Every structure is written in structure tokens, then in C-alpha cells.
Automatic annotation (TrEMBL):
Pfam families: PAP2. The chain crosses the membrane at residues 47-64, 71-91, 111-132, 139-157, 163-187. PANTHER family: AT30094P, SPHINGOSINE-1-PHOSPHATE PHOSPHOHYDROLASE. Keywords: Membrane, Transmembrane, Transmembrane helix. InterPro entries: PAP2/HPO, PAP2/HPO_sf. It comes from Cohnella rhizosphaerae. Signal peptide: none annotated. Residues 73-182 form the Phosphatidic acid phosphatase type 2/haloperoxidase domain. It comes from the Bacteria. This is Phosphatase PAP2 family protein.
Length: 190
């Protein structure tokens, strides 16, 4: 929450140099091959794909391991969606000019795709760490989750629909949702 507050205070003061640097790096990296990759990664944070992954993850956990964790997948994604929508309305920060290549609408802060990706894939990361016993399995789950979160966020910057601060704030909000789910699901009464 402290990181989110810091990012927000920087964003309120205007666009930081790091927002401009990330936007410049993204525009310099644009090429046909990269655009196809980043469009796919952008879709990993889209409503349709996230809903499908959420429901599939929930069903697998419900059937194979724990009903509470199965339900938590739906809860963590819904909480992230509602929270980012409320924050976007509260802050009302505009998106960058010159967005291209993908559909976008509404306010920009925090990034909805980044928030929901951090919540869903962050929950995968935490579950993998908490539920798996082997080191290799943990490393694989953590690496995949981090790669999906980072790539979803970068894709939003690549297509100029968000600033880096929008994406980082989204990561904070989504990560908080995943941590809350872990606390609720793994809380042990003593």
C-alpha cells in the first residue's frame, strides 16, 4: 500500500521521467514481430482470457484440492476488478496520447489489465509457493507467474494505452488482492 501511495503521489504531480523513459523505450522497440507477441501478452490480461483462466483454475482447485481455494480464484479476480474500477473513477487520470493497435477506453490509472493480471497470476504464484513442496515446481510456477504479470504490464506500455506508473499501480493493487486471498485461505486459528 505504501508503494501504491508513492506511485500515486508521483502521478498526481504529473508524468514522471520514468513514465516518459518507458514510453520512449516501448516506441523504440516497436516492430512487426514484437507487436504480435505483445498483442498476445496483452490478451493474457483481457477480460475474456482472464475469465476463462479464472474459471478453469477455480474448477481444477475445486475438484482436485480445495473448494475454498477454488472459490478464491473468482473472489480475487472480482475484488481486483471492482477495486481498479473504483480507483480509476476516483483518480480520473487520462491515458497517454497516441495509443495504437488495441482497443482501450476509460481512465488510465491504475491499469485494469495489470491489476487483474497481478491478482490472478499473483495468486498462482502464492499458491504455487504455498502448495508445492518441490523446489523445481515452485520455481516453475513462480517464473511463469512473474513472466505473465510483467509481460501483461509491458504490453500496455508497448501499445501506449498506459504509462508505467499506471501499470506499477495496477501491480500493487492486484498484488494486494492476491495477498488478501492468501491470508484468508491460509489463516490458521490457534
Amino acid at each position: 500500500m505504501l508503494l501504491f501511495a508513492t506511485i500515486t503521489s508521483l502521478r498526481v504531480g504529473g508524468y514522471a521521467a520514468w513514465d516518459e523513459a518507458a514510453a520512449d523505450a516501448a516506441s523504440n522497440a516497436r516492430a512487426a514481430g514484437w507487436t504480435s507477441l505483445w498483442r498476445t501478452m496483452n490478451d493474457m490480461g483481457s477480460t475474456t482470457i482472464v475469465a476463462a483462466i479464472t474459471l478453469l483454475s477455480a474448477a481444477c482447485w475445486w475438484l482436485l484440492r480445495s473448494r475454498k481455494i477454488g472459490v478464491s480464484f473468482v473472489g480475487v479476480v472480482l475484488a481486483a476488478y471492482v477495486l481498479q474500477a473504483a480507483l480509476k473513477s476516483a483518480f480520473g487520470f487520462e491515458r497517454p496520447d497516441g495509443a495504437w493497435g488495441i482497443a482501450h477506453d476509460g481512465f488510465g490509472y491504475p491499469s485494469g489489465n495489470a491489476t487483474i493480471a497481478a491478482a490472478l497470476y499473483g495468486w498462482w504464484l502464492l499458491l504455487g509457493w504455498l502448495a508445492l513442496r518441490g523446489r523445481v515446481g515452485r520455481i516453475v510456477v513462480v517464473a511463469i507467474a512473474i513472466a505473465l504479470i510483467a509481460a501483461t504490464g509491458w504490453s500496455r506500455i508497448y501499445f501506449s494505452v498506459h504509462y508505467l506508473s499506471d501499470v506499477c499501480a495496477g501491480f500493487c493493487v492486484g498484488g494486494l488482492c492476491a495477498l488478501c486471498a492468501a491470508t484468508i485461505c491460509f489463516w490458521r486459528r490457534t
